Amino acid sequence: MLRGFYTAASGMIAQQRHQEALSNNIANANTPGYKADQASLRAFPEMLIQQMGKKNIPTTQGINLPVQNPIGSLNTGVYVHETAPNYVQGDVRETGLTTDMALVNGVIPDETGSLFFTVQNEAGEVRYTRNGNFTVDGQGALVTNQGYYVLDQAGNQIQTDGMEFIVTQDGFLQTEDQAILLGIAYTDNANDFVKEGNDLFNGEAGAVPAGATFTVQQGFLEQSNVDSLQSMTQMMESYRMFETNQRVLKAYDESMGKAVSEIGRLG
Fold first, then answer.
1. What is the pTM of this model?
2. Boundaries of each Flagellar hook protein FlgE/F/G-like D1 domain copy (predicted)?
C-alpha cells in the first residue's frame, strides 16, 4: 500500500511541474521571440512482481525446492524527464519601429538547427536570443530592452552614434558612414541550449554555415510561438490528472487509517 502512496504522489508532482511550464508559456504569450517550453513525462522503471513459494519433491528426504512464479510488472509512477523549448519559428508582426528586427529562418541544413541574435549580458558573457525588440541607449549603442548589448559578427558592441540606420535583409546595419554585419549565430542542435530568463539562451554557437539562409526584417518582430488555446486545454487536462492522483492518494490514506485503527482494536 505504501508503494501506492509514492506512485500517486509522483503523479501529482509531475503534473504540478507540467502546470508550471504551461503557466510560464501563457505568461509569455505576448513576449517577442519567446519559445514555448514543452514538458516530457516519463515512467519510472517497472518492477517485475513474482510469487515466491516452494515445491515439494516426493523423495524419502522430503526435499522442498524454492520456486518463483512471475505475476506481472508494476509501474512505480511518472516524473518530468525534461522541459525543452520548442524552437519553431513564431509569426512575424510588423511594428514600424526601425530598431525592431525579426530573424526569419530560411533553409536550415539540420532540422534541429536554429539561428539567433548574439548579445552580451550584464556580466560581459555572450548569450543568444530570438527577441529582436531592440533600442538605442544614451551612448548610441544598439541594446535589447533589458539593456544587453547587441553584438556584431566580430563580437563587438554595435555603435550607431544615434544616427538613423537601415538593416538589409542579409543582416547589415547601415548608417551614413559604416556598414556593420549583425552577429547572427547558428547552432546545429538548439536543444543543447539552456534558458536563462529575459529571452536569453546559453550554449555553443558558431557562424552561419554556407547551406543555411535567413532574412532580417527591419520594423518587424517575431512573436511568441505559444499557442494560448492549446496551452489552456493542456492546463485543464493536467489539472484533472492532478485531481485524479489526489483522490487516489486520499483513498490510500483512508484505507491505511482504517487498517491501523481496526488492527489496533483487535489487539
1. 0.78
2. 113-172
